[in-house]
Amino acid sequence: MIPDMMRAVEISEPGGPDVLKPVSRPVPVAGHGQILIRVQWAGVNRPDALQRAGLYAPPSGASDLPGLECAGTVVGVGTGVTRWKTGDRVCALLPGGGYAEYVTCPAEHALVVPVGLSLREAAALPETAYTVWSNVVDRGALRAGERFLVHGGSSGIGTMAIQIANALGARVWATAGSAEKCAACTKLGAVAINYRDEDFVKVLGKSGGADLILDMVGGSYIARNLKSLADDGRLVMIAFLGGAKADLNFAQIMMRRLHVTGSTLRPQSEAAKARIANDLRCELWPLVEAGAVRPVIDSTFPLADAAEAHRRMESSEHIGKILLQVADEG
Ligand SMILES: NC(=O)c1ccc[n+]([C@@H]2O[C@H](COP(=O)([O-])OP(=O)(O)OC[C@H]3O[C@@H](n4cnc5c(N)ncnc54)[C@H](OP(=O)(O)O)[C@@H]3O)[C@@H](O)[C@H]2O)c1
Fold first, then answer.
1. Coiled-coil ranges per the record (predicted)?
2. Does residue 46 line the site of ligand 1, with CB under 6 A?
3. Tens digits of per-residue pLDDT, 152-207?
4. Among 26, 66, 84, 294, which is most buried by a count of CB atoms within 10 Å?
5. What CATH number has the domain bearing residue 187?
6. Which of 46, 132, 299 best tests ligand 1's pocket when mutated (most atoms within 8 Å of CB)?
């Protein structure tokens, strides 16, 4: 029985974590090509904090509620949906709306909960899996034997990137800002570089340079990333936590045949996200089910404590993913 109203957490006004307020909202209805999910766990991502601060508007047509991923049970299917039926356990990439008891999303953006994972673990997968696969494997074209560097190695994105790159047979380096974070990166299979003590340009230089770098920092890292690349190397930007501007010598891009690219996931078309989902189903999910790639979970909070979860994220003390428990696991 689906109720008319649900518990949710909304952004009452742009601002700090305290603007996240528990509210009652109407349960959404699955439209054509969509499914309705009863959410048990929702992922917290850095872009949620940007949206909360008024710096990242939801795309048109998306829920104003935060929340880009969840895991739960399908409780409704819209017209034209053949992939799912009521009762299926899924995790899904959402255009928004995950901080709620019910959410709708395009049916093609949901994935089956991998065998061996709980709903809690599955909720930690979609945003990082879509982002890392599309930027490291598709855009970055990482191949076995290549040298891969990821910045923010202990982040949700970083912990996924280290594991995927390892599973693909790459040699992996990761930067992080504390001994504890570096230990976590090492445990996942990366050579960890504590950027407070060591210069990643020198470390990578000694090994011949990186073939691919995944960067979320930007700012002063941009020029240093180019220096760290081997000839023909690729730099993929997915965020600019340290700033988006840099003073660059472009000649090295020409002389050493470097590639600089990047992407953001959320504004991409439904069809583009469905293509990524298909790659995840075929190529990443078998690695997850084999235990080669596992979500790293830092902490969990009840939905009503979403503000506390955002404080944890913005403290940058976390290692891996932060989750909200929306309902008991059934
Ligand atoms: N382009 C896309 O499609 C896409 C999709 C999802 C996420 N993202 C972005 O990817 C990044 C990682 O996402 P996430 O959810 O994994 O976040 P997260 O877990 O909070 O990771 C951010 C990490 O970046 C490091 N960092 C370096 N410089 C920083 C700075 N100036 N401010 C804050 N942190 C800094 C921090 O680790 P240290 O303590 O080691 O510095 C922190 O753990 C975010 O910026 C997010 O917006 C992009």
1. none
2. yes
3. 999 999 999 999 999 999 999 999 999 999 999 999 999 999 999 999 999 999 99
4. 66
5. 3.40.50.720
6. 46
